[in-house]
Amino acid sequence: MPILVLIVLCLLSCQKKEEAPEKPKTELGLLELAPSKHYQDTAPASSPELDVTQTPDLAKIPKGSALKIAVHPLVNYADLYGVLEQTQKQHTQQLFFAVRSPKDPPTRGWLRISDFSVVGSVPVKLAIAEEQKLPWTSFTEHWGSLYEICRAESQDCTPQLEKPSQEGSLQVELSLSHQGVRVNFQQVDPPAEQSSQRVQVMDFDPNSNEESQVKTLVTKKAAQDIGTEAWFTFRPKTVMDEASALTEVVSRGCGKQRCTVRIKADPSVPAIRLLSTLGAAFPDGSNQAMFAFVKP
């Protein structure tokens, strides 16, 4: 009798072990990672790695250390901004995002982002060191060719002005929505007389009388005539085109120097789409940009 009891107990014990669920894997599969044309960076083997499925607590990560991040496909830009905000508080300036190469078969790689910042949603001029500023002319001298590249696949492109302003500095902005991605080239640090025109445009009061509205519209047209901003909009699929127009526009607009780029996106835009866009705008072999991520 005791022997039978032992056999039954053993069978029950073995059955429980077989039915015990396996511990779920936290590492994302290769096809869950963002496809990116920038994937050849080397991440430090000793850096901590984080799988982002929501805004995590980074308090245990050593301050100032490089961080490897794998972003889940369901994470949106608002969630990613929360992560970036925490990493900046931890003084982390080296982020390595896990991505996959666009080639077939794909391989796992890393997209490095360094010298980044997070900024508020109110449009302001970025604080850029004098030696890192790009002249506005680094864009305007390529304006015509960028317009032709954009017009080959989009209707939303700013044509070159006959006599654009030749002064001031360049600020670049990448803006993502569910409909596409827009590259904005903006003039900052304009000459004094140009600044006064801009102030009048910004002070426009929709409740003012008709005479002052006409005056403001004339001033606004004058500001446009001297060329202070240009934008080029592309469809989402352009990002992963083999010869991407987005790559051409950004590389020519920034030239051979390092750009400082504001990153904007709708809160619900998937974060992996943003990573793919950054990979297309700054693929392997291009100058790494300095990014300022705007609060959604």
Characterization of the model:
This protein has 296 residues and is of the alpha/beta class. The protein has 8 helices and 12 strands. The chain has helices spanning 2-19, 77-89, 137-140, 143-151, 192-202, 210-225, 245-254, 271-281; strands at 34-35, 49-52, 67-71, 94-100, 108-114, 117-119, 134-135, 169-176, 181-188, 229-234, 260-265, 290-294.
Q: What's the short version?
A:
By secondary structure, the protein is an alpha/beta fold. It is 31% helix and 21% strand.
Give the helix/strand class.
alpha/beta
Describe the sheet with the most strands.
7 strands, mixed
Order of helices and strands: HEEEHEEEEHHEEHHEHEHE
Overall geometry: globular
Average predicted local confidence, pLDDT: 79
Q: Roughly how many Å apart are the termini?
A: 71 Å
Give me the oligomer status.
single chain
Number of helices: 8
What Rg, in angstroms, do the CA atoms define? Answer: 25 Å
**Percent of sequence in beta strands:** 15-25%
Low-confidence stretches: 16-25, 196-224
The helix content is: 25-40%
Give the total of beta strands: 12
Summary keywords:
296 residues, alpha/beta, 7-stranded mixed sheet, 5-stranded mixed sheet, 8 helices, 12 strands, 31% helix, globular
Secondary-structure topology with pairs:
Layout: H1 2-19, E1 34-35, E2 49-52, E3 67-71, H2 77-89, E4 94-100, E5 108-114, E6 117-119, E7 134-135, H3 137-140, H4 143-151, E8 169-176, E9 181-188, H5 192-202, H6 210-225, E10 229-234, H7 245-254, E11 260-265, H8 271-281, E12 290-294
Parallel strand pairs: 1-4, 2-3, 3-4, 6-12, 8-11, 11-12
Antiparallel strand pairs: 4-5, 7-8, 8-9, 9-10
Helix pairs in contact: 4-7, 5-6
